[in-house]
Amino acid sequence: MELFNLTGFLLHRTDMKMTNYFKKRLKQFEITPEQWGILSVMDGERAITQKELSDAIDRDQTTVVRMIYSLEKKGIVIRTLNDEDRRSHNLLLSGKGMELKSMLIPVVTEAHNHVTQKLTDVEIAELHALLDKLYQVVKDE
In angstroms, how far is the first alpha carbon of the chain from the final one? Predict the structure, then answer.
């Protein structure tokens, strides 16, 4: 089978280019795309546990702990003990984290609009549906 007919290759090639573009857009904020994923699901009002966070961004808990530690050192995330489960931590965005998230939303929106500029809204919805179908096949593998 020819390489350019393999869906996995095409997805990986596109993901690499899109991730590199996104890294460049976030570099001035000293945030990685993975860290943006965390910021995007957190807020400063409602705490989230590390388990909930890892489920929300579909990453293993060990990786999430490392990313949280890095964000905590930067003063972006606050980690406190969970009163209901002492083995768990509650996570909140700090004031600095909420300010950063507010600054990043337009940057992320512009990046999304840039990479999808040749697609219609219908095509974007179709692409999302197709990618979800592929994900559902491999998510538990």
Answer: 23
pLDDT band for position 32 (cuts 50, 70, 90):
very high
- The DSSP output letter for 29 is G
User: For the CA atoms of 20, 22, 23, 26, what is the dihedral angle to 10 degrees?
Assistant: 160
Q: How far apart are CA 104 and CA 136, in angstroms?
A: 29
Q: Which class for 87: exposed (0-12), middle (13-18), buried (19 or more C-beta within 10 A)?
A: exposed
pLDDT, mean of residues 2-22: 96
Nearest by Cα to 103 from 29, 21, 22, 27: 29
As beta bridge partners, residue 80 has 90
Q: pLDDT tens for residues 89-125?
A: 889 999 999 999 999 999 999 999 999 999 999 999 9
Residues 91-102 as b/e (b if ≥16 CB within 10 A, e otherwise) read bbbbeebbebbe
- Which two tokens mark 129? 């549906």
